[in-house]
Amino acid sequence: ENRDLQYLIKPQKVEFRSLNFNNTLHWQPGRAREARDTVYFVQYKVYGQSTWQNKDDCWGIRSHVCDLTNETSDIQEPYYGRVKAAAAGIYSDWSLSCRFTPWRETMIGPPSVTVVHRNKFIKVKLQAPCSPYRRKKGSKIPMANYYDLLYQVFIINNLLDEQHKLLVYEGQDKVVKIEDLRPGVSYCITAKTYVPMLDRSSAYSSRQCTVL
Membrane-spanning residues where (predicted)? Predict the structure, then answer.
C-alpha cells in the first residue's frame, strides 16, 4: 500500500517556464487526487554538477510552482529542477525536469508601447521588457541587453477590419513615425519583440488606439 501511495503521489510533468528570465518550475500533482495533504520539495542544480541544492522557500509547500529566478541567473548555464511529494508520511521518488537553458528558452515579452498622435501621423515609442536582474544602481536590466531585439510595429485601421494587422515597421528604433494617415479615422497600434537569432517572437502588446 505504501509503495502504491509512493507511486500515486509522484509529481507529473515537471517543467521550467520562463518569461523575460523569470524562471519558474511547474509540476502537476500525482494520480492520487484524493491525497489532499500532499506537500512538495524542490531541488535544482547546474547540469554537470553532482550535488543538488535544496530550494528552501519551496521545501514542504502545497503549491505546484516554485520560483527559481535567482538560482538560475547565469543565463547561459543549463539547469535541472526536480520535485518530490510527501503525503501521510510517505515520500515519492523525485521527478526530474528536462534540461533548461534560460538564454535559449526564455520567452520574451512584448515591448511597452506609447502612442502620440498629430494631425496626419502617429509617433510610437517602444520600450523593451525588463529582466528581473538589476544594475548596480538598482534599475532593472532590459532584455535588449541580452539579445539583438527587433521591434515589429503593426497598425490596425478600425474602419477596414479590426482583425487585420499591417506590419508598418521592423527594426531597432525605439521611436517610430507612421505617416500618411487619414484624419478622423480610428487606428490601433500593437507591437512585438522579435529575436532573429532564435527566430522567436513575443506575443502582441496590448493595443493602443487613437483617432487622428
Answer: none
